[in-house]
Amino acid sequence: MFKLDDEAALLAAFRPKDQKQVEVPKDLALPRLVHDYLAWTHPSGGRVFLIFQVPGGVPIGIAFDADGGGGGASVPHLCEWCHQTGAGNQVGLLSATVNAKRRAGVHVCVDLSCGKKLEEAADLGGYSARPGLEKLVARMARFAEQALQIDPLGSGR
Asked: Which residues are bridge partners to 64 per DSSP?
């Protein structure tokens, strides 16, 4: 759990090159306690924003481009982060800029509703969602670190 005090703190979670692309939703109340992660889609679509924090780390923001779905709406796909299935219009490729010459992508729930899906599955199965949510945030951090070279602990930012 982490706290975002204001819009400046929210924007500070993103890399400087991504900050100018971030559009904070008008209905996002700040200050805000974030339990696992915060995600929102740009109103016009095409962009998805994510902020998460690993234990002992700093809030990390990623600005994704929604490059399209994974296929037809009736074709099921598996999210790489929450391991839940969704139709091709629900699970697809989100990509982010690594540098001027390279992008990295991940095949996930296009609205990043992974946490909600894990909680619903846990409720139906009668078990705690907490271990799944912790793994979800760890997968987000692994993508940030390995694909985007963002240190989830915050050194070198």
From this structure: 48
